[in-house]
Amino acid sequence: MAIVDCKPCEACGEPVMMLVHAVTGKRAPINRDPTELGNLVLELTNQGWRYRVLLKGEARPPAHEIYMPHFATCPAAARFRRPANVIPLHQEAG
Ligand SMILES: [Zn+2]
Asked: How far is ligand 1, taken at its centre, from the CA of residue 72, in Å?
């Protein structure tokens, strides 16, 4: 069950939670349903829910579910990934 409001992923329609990184403040879509395969924990702060990434080898905090970033499972994730060294097609001459 989701702890915050979900909205459908713009690319694939899966329900995702838009949450803010506890440190960087960046928003990211996170899969609604927890999974042991994930690497994110959600923590309730004074500013609301924040997510953070578990460190490698870090044990799951007690009483926390583990969540998966939606980028990891979205079938349309390629649309999100825009590495800086990729030139968008529409900039081609012609
Ligand atoms: Zn998606």
From this structure: 9
Placement of tokens 């960046």 in the chain: 26
Rounded to the nearest angstrom, the distance between the alpha carbon of 14 and the centre of ligand 1 is 6
Domain boundaries, the chain: 6-79
Cα–Cα distance, 93 to 4 (Å, whole number): 45
Q: What is the pLDDT of residues 32-44, one digit of tens each?
A: 999 989 999 999 9
pTM of the full predicted structure?
Answer: 0.75
Q: How many angstroms does the Cα of residue 38 sit away from the middle of ligand 1?
A: 16
Q: Which long-range contacts (C-beta less than 8 Å, at least 24 apart) are formed by 10-15?
A: 11/74, 11/75, 11/76, 11/77, 11/79, 11/80, 12/74, 12/75, 12/76, 14/70, 14/73, 14/74
